[in-house]
Amino acid sequence: MKFTKMQGLGNDYIYVDCTREALDNPSDIAKKVSDRHFGIGSDGLVLILPSQKADFRMRMFNSDGSESEMCGNAIRCVGKYVYDNGLTDKKVVNIETLAGIKVLTLTTENGEVVLVRVDMGEPILVPEDIPVDSAKDRFISEPVSIDNYEFKVTAVSMGNPHAVSYIDNVADFPLSQIGPKMETNKLFPRKVNAEFVQIIDRNTLKMRVWERGAGETLACGTGACAVLVASVLNNVSERAAAIKLLGGELFIEWSEKDNHVYMTGPAVKVFDGEINI
């Protein structure tokens, strides 16, 4: 299997061009290639496929083999892959995902993509659509107890479910203890991505993320979008802010004009390779 390893803010995936070759059992392959000791090492596997609805279709699998609806960091890298490898010459590219069609605007330097702006669509706030087990119209700043902590959780879907909580200091937060328990909390029937956020100011937020099916990662694009939406709903940030993650920074905007969330960030190729699967 030929592959390219790419990363967006350290959120790294193995990318396979399935416009040219078929790939059987992607769930099993994701587990194998993601292993950082016996495989290539990644947060998961991304397939780039033909689409009947858009320019390309993306499927992504977490390191545990589960398929996820969307990944903001991964889709930026898909945009870079298809342009840099000559699969398209468009600088506005439509990508089909399980969370709908996303529109990517590519910024290039010397013929290569260096920055990608993604129209992530409208945030989903209705609990049953996120999904979160709640009879309320919105799930905003609701108390959730884990161990000796009580969190005020805001639930948002960006095509995949997120639970956003605010803490004083992300650096010393016991994410490996709390993250798995939030991910599998009975409130979330399809599990959840858990973001823990420190407010720097109304234009700057700092976060760590426990990703559903992957554990802590250096960055999560949909998570950063969910954090911005939750922060506006909780009136702790403006509608546009820099989101600081362990792997770097994303700029997120929740537009009042169309209610869409826009994410801007880098996409980087690490290396090409082949592996016997």
TrEMBL record:
Task: Output a single Gene Ontology CC term carried by this record.
Answer: cytosol
Q: In which pathway does it act?
A: Amino-acid biosynthesis; L-lysine biosynthesis via DAP pathway; DL-2,6-diaminopimelate from LL-2,6-diaminopimelate: step 1/1
Q: Which residues bind substrate?
A: N11, N62, G72, N73, N160, N193, E211, R212, G221, T222
Catalytic residue positions: C71 (proton donor), C71, C220 (proton acceptor)
- What Enzyme Commission number(s) does the record list for this chain? 5.1.1.7
Q: What catalytic activity is recorded?
A: (2S,6S)-2,6-diaminopimelate = meso-2,6-diaminopimelate
Q: Which PROSITE patterns does the record cross-reference, listed alphabetically?
A: DAP_EPIMERASE (PS01326)
Gene Ontology molecular function: any one: diaminopimelate epimerase activity
Q: Which UniProt keywords apply?
A: Amino-acid biosynthesis, Cytoplasm, Isomerase, Lysine biosynthesis
Compartmental location: Cytoplasm
Major subcellular site: cytoplasm
InterPro entries from the xrefs? DAP_epimerase_AS, DAP_epimerase_DapF
According to UniProt, residues marked as the site described as Could be important to modulate the pK values of the two catalytic cysteine residues are H162, E211
SUPFAM superfamilies, sorted: Diaminopimelate epimerase-like
> Which Gene Ontology biological process is one annotated for this entry?
lysine biosynthetic process via diaminopimelate
**Magnesium: present as a keyword of the record?**
no
**Assembly and partners?**
Homodimer.
Role summary: Catalyzes the stereoinversion of LL-2,6-diaminopimelate (L,L-DAP) to meso-diaminopimelate (meso-DAP), a precursor of L-lysine and an essential component of the bacterial peptidoglycan.
Stated family: Belongs to the diaminopimelate epimerase family.
UniProt name for this protein:
Diaminopimelate epimerase
Record organism? Ruminiclostridium cellobioparum subsp. termitidis CT1112
Q: What lineage does UniProt assign to this protein's organism? A: Bacteria, Bacillati, Bacillota, Clostridia, Eubacteriales
